[in-house]
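hiii so um. not sure if this is the right channel but i have a protein structure encoded as tokens and i wanna go backwards to a sequence. like what aa goes where. can anyone help
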């Protein structure tokens, strides 16, 4: 992508980030792994969710990611042949248009994009790797798998910081959060270190604060959130503390790493029914409130974040859709959207502007195996 176009993409993303909290159109996309579809919705200013369309994507469609300029939606297909689909988004209607299925390193459990929109990052849980694909000048994922890095057991996510210099990948099976330096010109990742979590924590998904000072890591098996300070010069992480997302009296106990079942393999023995199984983590756009989902109890936990220390404090735990794999906060910061893999609905929850607490306001039908949810707004 030419330098002028790169700067334009960064500028567009910055303008979207600081736009007033009034939007002409807010759209929500949900991937339905069992159906092989992506549902498109419109979210009203009153928190009502309206189903607009169902678009074929491919069996095993799961992780979603947006291009920085919000013109493209990327979707990972975790059934063979593994690929990532590029859709264009019509800002006026929310309609998706299929552009290309692109070759990727393997079944990708997580997608993210660098801040300039030049490269797609992926993490493969089953093949223990992270990867980089290039993105062309039109925002379409290419077949150019630029880099593949073996990580150790169960790579589960990969994100980049706001400066576009540092990348972090959660490695569930080895209880590590990996640190990389990113070369935005070549798209290459260079390992720069790692932080070790307590054994059996199961680091799963991270999120970075809007001011780029802190990283919050959700641990799948421990059901905890670990807060890290980010060194602005080196990108290195320093642990500040842990907080539990599992209320006392829940009856849940520490979980276990779950195997990736491939076609033709026998099903593993059933697990105990009271194991912690945390899934997703999101922040409000202003960084004041943090949310996590837990699948066994079908709940979302709410935290208020101290602006100085960066540490989250537990506020609320609420029942939501059954087996909530994906959650997201809309760009206005007013609504939390929740998908349940075993729920017929996508739920919308109003966020209290003072405490961050949640109240369910509406729902709309979802597909089978609903798991990832992505919201985008246009002025």
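sure thing!! here u go:
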């Amino acid at each position: 992508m030419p330098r002028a176009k790169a700067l334009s993409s960064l500028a567009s993303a910055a303008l979207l980030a600081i736009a007033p909290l009034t939007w002409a159109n807010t759209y929500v996309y949900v991937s339905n792994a069992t159906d092989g579809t992506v549902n498109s919705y419109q979210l009203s200013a009153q928190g009502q969710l309206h189903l607009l369309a169902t678009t074929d994507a491919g069996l095993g469609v799961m992780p979603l990611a947006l291009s920085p300029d919000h013109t493209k939606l990327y979707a990972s297909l975790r059934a063979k042949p593994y690929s990532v689909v590029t859709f264009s988004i019509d800002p006026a209607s929310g309609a998706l248009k299929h552009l290309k299925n692109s070759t990727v390193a393997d079944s990708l459990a997580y997608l993210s994009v660098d801040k300039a929109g030049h490269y797609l990052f992926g993490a493969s849980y089953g093949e223990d790797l992270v990867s980089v694909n290039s993105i062309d000048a039109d925002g379409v994922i290419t077949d150019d798998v630029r880099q593949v890095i073996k990580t150790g057991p169960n790579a589960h996510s990969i994100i980049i910081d706001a400066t576009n210099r540092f990348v972090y990948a959660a490695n569930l099976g080895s209880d590590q959060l990996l640190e990389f330096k990113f070369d935005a010109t070549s798209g290459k990742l260079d390992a720069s270190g790692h932080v070790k979590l307590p054994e059996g924590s199961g680091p799963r998904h991270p999120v970075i604060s809007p001011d780029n000072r802190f990283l919050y890591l959700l641990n799948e098996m421990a059901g905890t959130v670990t807060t890290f300070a980010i060194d602005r010069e080196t990108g290195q992480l320093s642990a500040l503390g842990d907080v539990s997302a599992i209320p006392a009296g829940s009856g849940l106990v520490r979980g276990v790493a779950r195997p990736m079942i491939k076609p033709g393999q026998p099903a593993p023995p059933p697990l105990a029914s009271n194991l912690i199984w945390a899934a997703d983590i999101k922040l409000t756009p202003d960084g004041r409130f943090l949310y996590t989902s837990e699948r066994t109890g079908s709940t979302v936990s709410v935290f208020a974040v101290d602006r100085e220390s960066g540490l989250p404090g537990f506020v609320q735990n609420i029942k939501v859709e059954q087996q909530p794999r994906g959650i997201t906060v809309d760009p206005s910061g007013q609504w939390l959207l929740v998908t349940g893999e075993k729920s017929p609905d996508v739920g919308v929850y109003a966020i209290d502007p003072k405490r961050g607490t949640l109240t369910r306001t509406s729902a709309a039908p979802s597909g089978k195996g609903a798991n990832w949810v992505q919201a985008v707004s246009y002025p």
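oh and The longest strand covers residues 141-150.
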